[in-house]
């Protein structure tokens, strides 16, 4: 096993992946925690369901661990992980649909509202401003869910996760010009629905709390241990 000059938490992605390729699950846990929020939000943008997004993320992590030895450095590790999550989420999406082919990045002929999206509960004694912010966040989440799938995924990666155009294009396998076009149209639709409140609560949508982060890391590590999975060399 290679030796890291820094503690695992401070190590660069490349150093962590090198350790993962040698079978170090501790390094993999650090890598998961580093990108959990971004990757969960990516899966959530595609699947529009919290539980399904968690399941897809776990499967993606297992796939990444098993194929860690195949990473050749032709992209950033974060982009590589995002691609795996996108592919896994698409597979999960196909399983929930009856049609044989799912074209994720084409506009659907019509748009359906999801006004019955679950709302987060507010803790007792929450100040009024916090309550208003939570209500706005839930509204934004519903409106994001209403976007066509291609627009929604691009919006989440660019505006919420602050990925660059090139990173988003590489992760989704689409041209940079398409990323720009879909982001423009997604923001236009959201602005029409939310007016001046659009930018207020964007950073809090689909919050990734410590409990969910811990649960995903714990579940993946348990499955790796149970299956005695070793990364490909």
List the helices and strands and how they pair.
Layout: H1 13-21, H2 25-47, H3 50-66, H4 77-95, H5 128-146, H6 149-160, H7 165-172, H8 176-194, H9 210-227
Rg over CA atoms, rounded to whole Å, is 19 Å
For this structure, what is the CATH class of the largest domain? Mainly Alpha
- Assigned CATH superfamily of the largest domain: RNA polymerase sigma factor, region 2, helix turn helix motif
**Binned strand content:** under 5%
Indicate the mean pLDDT.
78
**How many alpha or pi helices?**
9
Description:
The structure is a single chain. The protein has two domains: 9-101 and 209-227, RNA polymerase sigma factor, region 2, helix turn helix motif (Rna Polymerase Sigma Factor, Chain: A), CATH 1.10.1740.10; 128-204, Winged helix-like DNA-binding domain superfamily/Winged helix DNA-binding domain (Arc Repressor Mutant, subunit A, Orthogonal Bundle). The protein is built from nine helices and no strands. The protein has helices at 13-21, 25-47, 50-66, 77-95, 128-146, 149-160, 165-172, 176-194, 210-227. Mean pLDDT is 78; it is low at 98-125. The chain is mainly alpha-helical and 233 residues long.
């Amino acid at each position: 096993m290679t030796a890291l000059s820094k503690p695992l938490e401070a190590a660069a992605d490349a150093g962590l992946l090198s350790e993962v390729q040698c079978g170090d699950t501790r390094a993999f846990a650090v890598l998961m925690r580093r990108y959990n929020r971004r990757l969960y939000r990516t899966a959530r943008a595609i699947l529009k369901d919290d539980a399904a997004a968690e399941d897809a993320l776990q499967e993606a992590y297992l796939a990444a661990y098993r194929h860690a030895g195949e990473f050749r450095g032709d992209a950033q590790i974060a982009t590589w992980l995002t691609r795996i999550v996108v592919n896994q989420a698409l597979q999960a999406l196909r399983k929930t649909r009856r049609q044989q082919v799912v074209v994720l990045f084409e506009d659907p002929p019509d748009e359906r509202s999801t006004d019955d999206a679950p709302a987060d509960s507010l803790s007792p004694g929450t100040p009024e401003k916090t309550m208003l912010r939570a209500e706005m966040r839930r509204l934004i989440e519903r409106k994001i869910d209403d976007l066509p799938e291609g627009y929604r995924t691009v919006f989440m990666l660019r505006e919420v996760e602050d990925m660059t155009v090139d990173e988003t294009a590489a992760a989704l396998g689409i041209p940079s010009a398409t990323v720009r076009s879909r982001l423009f149209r997604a923001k236009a639709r959201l602005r029409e629905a939310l007016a001046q409140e659009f930018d207020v609560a964007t950073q809090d949508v689909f919050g990734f709390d410590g409990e969910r982060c811990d649960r995903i890391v714990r579940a993946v590590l348990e499955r790796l241990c149970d299956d005695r999975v070793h990364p490909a060399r």
